[in-house]
Amino acid sequence: MSEIAVVAISIAKPGCEEQLRVALEGIVAPSRAERGALQYDLHRDLREPRRFVFYERWESEDALAAHGQSAHIGAYRKQIADWIEHSEIRVLKKIM
């Protein structure tokens, strides 16, 4: 198994920034407590305040897959469905 990183970007629909921010903040603590979570940090773009970015580090792809199937992530996805304009997830492996 090898460590992986994730960059997850969510862009709120206009007027939904604060609802999305609260929902995103709500998944930080339970995600950090998951087995295999090494880092789970939420950021907000200074120049585009509708853009939120997670930088995550996981022990393995299996740990990331379990995170994606967790109850709190499932509930979060249902909660934010109407607030998201665009989202993108990149799974990365460090090469140097």
From TrEMBL:
Residues 4-92 form the ABM domain. It comes from the Bacteria. InterPro entries: ABM_dom, AI-2_Isomerase_LsrG, Dimeric_a/b-barrel. It is an enzyme of class 1 (oxidoreductase). Its EC number is 1.-.-.-. PANTHER family: ABM DOMAIN-CONTAINING PROTEIN, QUINOL MONOOXYGENASE YGIN-RELATED. This is Monooxygenase. The lineage of its organism: Bacteria, Pseudomonadati, Pseudomonadota, Betaproteobacteria, Burkholderiales.
